[in-house]
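Dear all,

This email documents one entry for the complex benchmark we are building for the journal club exercise. For each entry we list the sequence lines for every component of the assembly. Then comes the predicted three-dimensional structure of the complex as a token string, followed by one or two observations. Please use this as the template for your own entries, and keep the labels exactly as they appear.
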Amino acid sequence: MFLTITTTGTPEHPATDLGFLLHKHPDRAQAFATSFGTAHVFYPEAEEERCTAALLLELDAVALVRRGKGKGRGGAPDAALAQYVNDRPYAASSLLAVALSKVFSSAMHGVCKARPERAAQRLPLRVEVPALPARGGPDLVRRLFEPLGWAVAVEPVPLDTEFPEWGDSRYVRLVLESETLTLSAALRHLYVLLPVLDDAKHYWVSSDEVRKLIRVGGAWLYFHPEVKLITNRYLSRRWSLTREAMERLELIRLAETDDSEVEEIDNAVEAETEQEEKPTPLAVQRREAILTALRERAAARVLDLGCGEGHLVRALLEEPRFTEIVGVDVSVRALAIASRRLKLDRMGERQAARVQLLQGSLAYTDKRLKGYDAAVLSEVIEHLDLPRLPALEYAVFGSARPRTVVVTTPNVEYNVRWESLPAGHVRHRDHRFEWTREEFRTWARAVAERHGYAVEFRPVGPDDPEVGPPTQLALFTLGTTETPTEKEAKAA
Ligand code: SAH
């Protein structure tokens, strides 16, 4: 089993930096023992202009069979390996992937102490695997690698060159080239996709594999058009694991959202806009505006949808009028932080009975969310891709249908007032969009119309005469054509 990685370079960025990036010196051949044989790393060429690292895996077939029968993961042997004659020693497969992750672990995680700036750089890369078992053939190979930014050259390997009439083997010769990837990304792609193409894992798949797949796959896997096929094959077609992985992949993207950053940015906006009096952070003003709306509507049972780390949940808990508070978020990490901050485990029984944290995605309808007085979506909608917004709309306004819904989102017009924000940038790296007042109102009015709500709008933060307030709030009320505020005005 054999794989090479080649890069080219210049006098400022010599190709031999590959040695630093892989943490393996180009002048030395090194050998590493693995539980199924020996992995050799050496450099067939190492010049300033061009450098190639080779990984050769010399398998111990006996060790493999023993390992499968003995104390291997889960202990169940792979049927294909329960014999001494098989293709494992010759073909690149999941074993090569395992060796890759073992020998080049730092590089895979993007760590390079000697050349940290290079680890984050995109490199010209060429990966060659002379014999890769590829179930699904050249077409699938292309479908797997091309969306990731690779130019793919793939040729089937004939069964026997002397007898072309025998046709092709299930092996291909694969050459991948890219100018747009970091070495770390390239290694992650190989680690996941080589076994996927082989489609015959060498050890029993456990839910530990889900964790590994998620860690190495992460964001690129989530956005891959073949994410389902990849996940399913990687997990040896165990559907329960595949489902678990698909769910966790969705979380991954969102778990990277850090709402403490939202507050930091809000504070920065605040520091710049209100210098005279002691400024109230925008996040605090936003919570106050939300609480005011909930009090006005006499809501007692409240959903905080996309509750993040639980700041609003905590504020709700401080007021006895809110008898039932449910925080929902898709990010397990955010919920864990919320739970710790709220000290849920040390709360008295009466308090604890008032609050619940649920993990779930707002892009799906959820029976648990039905029948509440009010739902809050504070700085949440802009974290969804626009095409997913109708799903959230239906889950909240169509299915959960609380009497009152409070939605807040940034007003993009206000961004020009924020000096430290470069022109054209959003306020948070996970924001999928930021709306003008007009865009938000158009959306909110259409939602209200579709689901039988009335809607009114309120500014949060200083309402600039030209660009409006930093945060915009929509207050929806079920089953009226007039908003309650309009009704009150009429009655008065
Ligand atoms: N409401 C909080 C947090 C806002 S950050 C506040 O006002 O400070 C956005 C939050 O929405 C994050 O915690 C993120 O995990 C969550 N989120 C994003 N998409 C979601 C989805 N589809 N389902 C549930 N929560 C989601």
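Observations: The chain is about 40% helix and 20% strand. The first strand starts at residue 2 and ends at 8.
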